Amino acid sequence: MKTKQHIISSLFLMPIIFTLTKNYFFAVLSGIITILVDIDHIIDFIITQKKIDTLSNMHQAFETFKYVKKNYFIFHSWEIIILLFLGYYFFKNEIFIILCFSIALHLLLDQIYNSFFLKKYSLKLFFYFFIYRLYHKFDVLSLRKYGHLIKEDEMIYE
To answer: Residue ranges per domain, the chain?
Structure first.
């Protein structure tokens, strides 16, 4: 999904979090976290390209398969949700639940959109499990349903 959709989704999450917690800080934090999960795209760019570029260039590098050949996406993983639930269970701190809901919303929307609506660029169903990506050596094409049909300079988002 694109950042714009994550911003819109965060606007729906914030009032829910406020209703549950009666805490403005937690409500705003949930919105920010929902959007900031995508910071791992920038981290992936820096790791794979071994440089820092403009935000625009780093973002555009994910529009094709020409530059970024690996998808680590450390924050895009359901395992983080499990760890956050465990954090809440053991420490009883609301921040774990706020992080959990925020990241889960982001992942759920990405999972639905990127697995079912990107046509031949759709991700495999288990892409959002870090262990699954590790098993596939984080290879960008192996993690796509039709990776064997994709040319590296094709645009993902039309």
So the answer is: 3-149
Helix crossing, 3-21 with 94-116: angle to 10°?
A: 150
Q: Which pair of structure tokens corresponds to residue 131?
A: 């262990």
pTM, full prediction: 0.92
For 15-41, b/e burial (b = at least 16 CB within 10 A) is eebbeeeeeeebbebbbebbbbbbebb
Q: Report how far apart, in Å, the C-alpha atoms of 119 and of each of 6, 109, 115, 143, 156 are.
A: 20, 16, 9, 14, 9
106-151 pLDDT, tens digit per residue, is 999 999 999 999 888 899 999 999 999 999 999 999 999 999 888 8
* 71 vs 43: CA distance, rounded Å: 10
Measured in whole angstroms, the distance separating CA 157 from the mean position of its chain's CA atoms is 16
H helices of the chain, where? 3-21, 24-36, 39-49, 55-60, 78-91, 94-116, 130-135
Do 69 and 50 meet the contact criterion of CB atoms below 8 Å apart?
no
